Amino acid sequence: MTGVLIGFAIIGFVILVGWLLARFKVVSQEGRLVLNRTSFFAASPALLFTVLADSDVGLLFSSVLAVALLAFAVVALIYLVVARLWLTKDPSRLALAATATGYSNVNNIGLPVAIYVIGDAGFVGPMLLLQLLVIAPLLLVTLDILTAGRASVAGILTQPLRNPMLIGAGLGAIVSALDIQLPAPVLAPLEILGGAAVPLMLLAFGISLGGDRPLQPGTGRREVWLAVVLKNLAMPVAAYVLARFAFGMDDQLVYACTVMAALPSAQNMYQYALRYDRATVITRDIVLLTTLASLPVMLLIAWLLKPA
Q: What residue ranges are annotated as transmembrane (predicted)?
């Protein structure tokens, strides 16, 4: 469990720095927009490219990924139905919160969890590829369409080609699929730039906490709690049921799928919300509360399911 605690501590420290910057008025709330735009248009595309260029896209067809995809679909669909019927009719808000309900923090927390709790870092790959190549592009295209207003069919169809995140992910996947070996002088500047993506996102997230407090009245608290229950409780249960009964996996794989499903929502969701100026407070609170709740949930799963 040491690795998990370290992963949480690293994230918490950077978020705390962002909060302190806002608390002592070193950076204003508007300043987080600069950090977010820098990450969205430069650092994150570079990170996506370098990560996917070095990944095995064949992992997209593994049974572990099938469990992750189906568990995501279950909780996202439940959120959409419940929230649409009783909580909100805003399509952008629904799209962001539903995705945040199932989109996991694979990079920052998932890697130490895979190494120290499961004992195999290979479980990160399928989830990372699923989120970067399937879920995130679908969300970004949806938000592009929803925020474009009155746009032509051609404009909507070509919108992904103007999104830097999708461009970076797509180029990286092509490099991986074609097994292209890029020279070090090409990769080095992209790796440096990509290395700034996560810190920038976490700092912007911390700065946002220096503004309005979480779960303020009128900010969609019921939507946040719905997402937290689904992410921290329903998604691990769905993954367990799918892995055990639908796919008949052995104890180790069932344990791995269940633990990875218990990861908190990723800071990427807040980055996307801030970029499109939609559901920023709700998304921030979902990320914050699922992160706080995920550690005890993962400890419980390890106690109940960890193979001898």
A: 6-22, 34-53, 59-82, 94-118, 124-146, 166-186, 192-212, 224-247, 253-274, 286-305
Query: Helices in 133-234 by DSSP H: which ranges?
Result: 136-147, 153-157, 164-177, 184-194, 197-209, 221-229
Distance, CA of 235 to CA of 119 (rounded, Å)? 21
Q: Show Cβ contacts of residue 131 under 8 Å, excluding neighbours closer than 6 positions.
A: 103, 104, 106, 266
Residue type, 276: Y
Q: Which domain holds residue 273?
A: 2-305
How long, in residues, is the chain?
A: 308
- Report pTM: 0.82
Q: Distance between the two ends of the chain, CA-based, in angstroms?
A: 16
For the chain, 308 residues long, give each residue's pLDDT as a single digit of tens: 566 677 778 878 888 999 999 989 898 888 888 888 898 889 888 988 888 888 777 766 788 889 999 999 999 999 999 999 999 999 999 999 999 999 998 877 786 688 677 877 667 777 877 888 889 888 988 888 888 765 555 655 566 677 787 788 888 888 988 889 999 998 999 999 988 888 888 888 888 887 667 777 777 899 999 999 999 999 999 999 999 999 999 999 999 999 999 999 998 899 899 889 999 999 999 999 998 898 889 889 988 998 87
Count CB atoms within 10 A of the CB of residue 305: 18
Whether residue 228 contacts residue 282, with contact meaning beta carbons closer than 8 Å, is answered with: no
**Which are the contacts of 12, defined by CB distance < 8 A and separation ≥ 6?**
none
DSSP 193-204: HHTTHHHHHHHH
Residue type, 250: D
CATH of residue 148: 1.20.1530.20
Q: Do 10 and 113 meet the contact criterion of CB atoms below 8 Å apart?
A: no
Residue type at position 265: S
Task: Tell me the residue type at 39.
Answer: S
| Number of domains making up the chain | 1
